[in-house]
Design brief:
Shape: globular
CATH architecture of one domain: 3 Solenoid
Radius of gyration: 18 Å
Oligomer: single chain
Strand order of the largest sheet: 2-5-8-13-16-18-19
Largest sheet: 7 strands, mixed
Strand content: 25-35%
Number of strands: 19
CATH topology of one domain: UDP N-Acetylglucosamine Acyltransferase, domain 1
Structural class: alpha/beta
CATH superfamily of one domain: Hexapeptide repeat proteins
Order of helices and strands: HHEEEHEEEEEEEEEEEEEEEEH
Number of helices: 4
Distance between the termini: 75 Å
Length: about 180
């Protein structure tokens, strides 16, 4: 008699994640955020104390990527968060995340004309303490957003952002300089 192959950690995570999702995902956004966060912790997400999700996130990735997701304390995640976890993602303490923010640890190099999505590229992401990511921000692989940085709505972050920097569109302004002009 053949024995079935062992289940992977990813399959186990996704199974537990789906059960947690079935239990709390139907709750309206902004209702029972602590219960939603507890369900995510029970599914194996490393989520610091007093960090909350105001809606159930979408989480995809490998077992290594899911295991390397680390979210600090006192973070808030708005509705529609998307995590593509092919590499480590570290979100430090006191980070605020707006609606529909995407964390993408995997992308593709530009390939030849016959197939533009070329070789896969995986790289970690780090979000520093106190950073604020506005609505619909997309963070691409290999990016570090420094402590206290503010990323404006709909910005695609494709390179590192220094600490205490405001990014609006392609413009980067030191928050110290920005505040002194106000």
């Amino acid at each position: 008699m053949d024995t079935p192959p062992p289940r992977s950690v990813t399959a186990d995570f996704h199974a537990v994640f789906r059960v947690a999702e079935a239990l709390v995902a139907r709750l309206p956004p902004f209702v029972a955020s602590r219960l939603r966060s507890s369900a995510l912790r029970a599914a194996g997400i490393n989520l610091g104390k007093r960090s909350v999700f105001w809606d159930f996130p979408t989480i995809l990735g490998t077992k290594e990527g899911v295991a390397a997701l680390s979210i600090g304390q006192f973070c808030g995640f708005n509705t529609g968060c998307f995590f593509d976890l092919e590499a480590p993602l570290v979100i430090e303490d006191h980070v605020s995340v707006g609606h529909d923010v995407m964390f993408l640890t995997k992308s593709f190099e530009v390939g030849p004309a016959r197939q533009r999505a070329g070789v896969a590229r995986r790289a970690p992401i780090r979000i520093g303490t106190g950073a604020w990511l506005g609505a619909r921000v997309t963070v691409l692989p290999g990016v570090t957003i420094g402590p206290g940085a503010v990323i404006g709505a709909s910005v695609v972050v494709d390179k590192d952002v220094p600490a205490q920097t405001l990014v609006m569109g392609a413009q980067r302004v030191s928050l110290a300089k920005w505040r002194s002009n106000g």
